[in-house]
Design brief:
alpha/beta; Rossmann fold; nine-stranded mixed sheet
Amino acid sequence: MVEAKPLIHSRLLAGAVLRWGHAALALVLALPLAGCAKSPDATFDLSAAPAARSLRALRAQVVVTEPLATAPADSDRIVVRPTPDTRAAFQGAQWAERLPRLVQTRLLQSFENAALSRFVSRPDGRIVAQYSLNTEIRRFDMDLSRGEAVVEISARLVEEGAGRIAAAKIFSARLAPAGDDGPAAALALDAALGDVMSQIVVWTAGRL
């Protein structure tokens, strides 16, 4: 298991922020529990994609479901692949909440940033939608064998009621991080996810 380096006094984290030029990554250091000797995990958030190029309004209401994922991505752990066939999690670093839930929230915010908030929502039962945007997190990890952060998400636009798949596509992005520890992986994965979400927003707008 790869151990994350300490965040405080780390020049790597600052260098990674400057390198990627991505929206500021929210970093929260959990307060240690009284009487607990274990160091708290560094907790990382993910950013919504910035406003996409000018997009026309959608012609249908869409609900954005929580992405499907399998372990260990279906957790709050930051996943690493030491080799192509092995997966583990960085020690001392985690996402702000379960990755699928966090990605769903940031994807909704990405649509909002593209001025499409009137047409997308969570599937809460109060919105009568014509389509659902169903996604699956196929990869969301730091691949040490290739030295890159990988995000791969499949998306399907499904007609509500009929259940027919109107469109489907796999979106991916790969970025070389500034290092091989938890903070560097989190920053690179955040930037890669922003790229993927921008692709999904543009793709969805072009089909509805």
